[in-house]
Design goal:
207 residues; alpha/beta; five-stranded antiparallel sheet; elongated
Length: 207
């Protein structure tokens, strides 16, 4: 069920470019985060939490390896935390654009993120109370208040609905058969008589 990318180009004359840079879930299975540059825009596919041991999870609090304020939009494939769990952090670091996802995912996302925030808040409170590492200034990665910022930026789509994100960039979500609201992402970049298409599978199948 690991995500896959497929890129195709039709009418290949010209210089239409679609660049994909992978910032998460490479050499690991969590922290899905992929930057697509196309039609003069920068689209982030997923913004997931890194899960595993304490060393790996500490990376969630680090700055992103790209300019957060340059991101024009986020497209979220589904509501599992390893695909959506750093959205509040993205907003903390300066992202103010739309977050596109399926309607069911938009409904589930506050529940998933508020649960993660509650656990993070309790963990920070416990660590500060007992000072096991000699410190009393631990902060949660994000709070339930931060989740509200994510919700306000959500934009809901139905399956097979073509959404023009920007003048030359079209988004379509198709059912990925993973969890409720999970979607495979199709981005089409247009320039004159040329079209370049990228398909990001997201997680596929029921497991």
């Amino acid at each position: 069920q690991w995500p896959l990318f497929l890129v195709s180009m039709f009418k290949t004359t010209g210089s239409l470019v679609m660049k994909v840079t992978i910032y998460g879930a490479a050499g690991a299975v969590t922290g899905s985060c992929h930057l697509v540059e196309a039609a003069g825009k920068r689209i982030l596919l997923d913004c997931g939490m890194i899960q595993g041991n304490k060393v790996e999870e500490a990376k969630n609090a680090l700055p992103f390896d790209f300019d957060v304020k340059s991101i024009d939009a986020v497209v979220l494939s589904h509501a599992h935390i390893d695909h959506c769990g750093r959205l509040p952090v993205l907003i903390q670091q300066g992202f103010h654009g739309p977050i596109y996802t399926h309607t069911a995912t938009a409904d589930m996302l506050p529940i998933m993120l508020e649960d993660a925030a509650s656990l993070a808040e309790m963990d920070a409170e416990r660590r500060n109370k007992y000072h096991k590492d000699g410190h009393s200034h631990h902060k949660a990665l994000f709070t339930r208040a931060d989740v509200g910022s994510v919700v306000r930026q959500l934009k809901s789509l139905d399956y097979r609905e073509e959404k023009q994100l920007f003048p030359n960039l079209i988004l379509t979500l198709n059912d990925a058969g993973h969890i409720l609201g999970s979607g495979s992402v199709r981005l089409q970049a247009l320039e004159n008589d040329k079209t370049k298409t990228l398909v990001f599978s997201g997680d596929v199948g029921p497991n």
